[in-house]
Amino acid sequence: HRDALSLSARGLAKSFGGVSALRSADLDVPADTIHAVVGPNGSGKTTLLNTITGYVRVDSGTVHLGGRGTGRRSPHRVARAGVGRTFQTPRLLPDLSVLDNVLLGAYARERSPAVAIAAGLPRARRESAALTAEAMAYLRFVGLSDVAGQQAGALPHGKQRLLEIGRALMARPRLLLLDEPAAGLSMTELEALGRLLREIRAQGVTVVLIEHHIELVVEVADAVTVLHEGATLLSAPPATALSDDRVLDVYLGR
Ligand code: ADP
């Protein structure tokens, strides 16, 4: 069990040219919780994730991880601070094996032994065996150990999404940000994802997910933040948030 990271983002604003992607977004996520970010298309969800992870530089606003301000950190440094993420479209190396894709997740870790492995030192070989064992454990965790040797690109879409989560876990994150992990999953895979997210939380990882599948949100999320036109409309437990008149107005366009 690790020490999960809390996340607090305040007043985030970001414009791309004339387009205001975020106007005033707040997001408060206590450690050891699962938090869903929902909102209509274009409401700023992905931009919010990108600002937290350093892929996009905010115009104004602050982000704290585990109570510490992150300033304007690069994606690499945010990752080293314990923040993992997946993308809306899985970013795997399709020609490599499933196992190798998970092993690549170790590069985001502090003091990665990658250089030693490249040098082929005996100690590196032991570390390499330990890394492989760890990667296999994550593959079992996400239910993909039976396809470890297959080409990642040959996996069906749903399994590629699970593989991305396995790779993100290999970096040993304490906060994991998932951009629409349920997109394109079958009903069975969706149920498996719900179980997986709860297990990830139980292991000391705070989880933030952008999600359109309301059933999944209700099932797993401790709280929901609703974004609308780049601003936080409200944050509340799922049942409260999703029955709020303001939220229904936004979704139904009333
Ligand atoms: P969501 O994830 O909720 O669909 P996004 O964060 O992707 O919303 O986008 C919010 C708004 O910002 C949209 O109007 C989108 O077109 C715009 N936007 C996002 N990223 C960029 C970018 N790199 N350049 C220009 N406009 C962008």
UniProtKB/TrEMBL annotation:
Domain ABC transporter: 7-254
Compartments, as annotated in UniProt: Cell membrane
Full protein name: Branched-chain amino acid ABC transporter permease
Organism per entry: Amycolatopsis deserti
Entire protein: shown range: 342 to 595 of 595
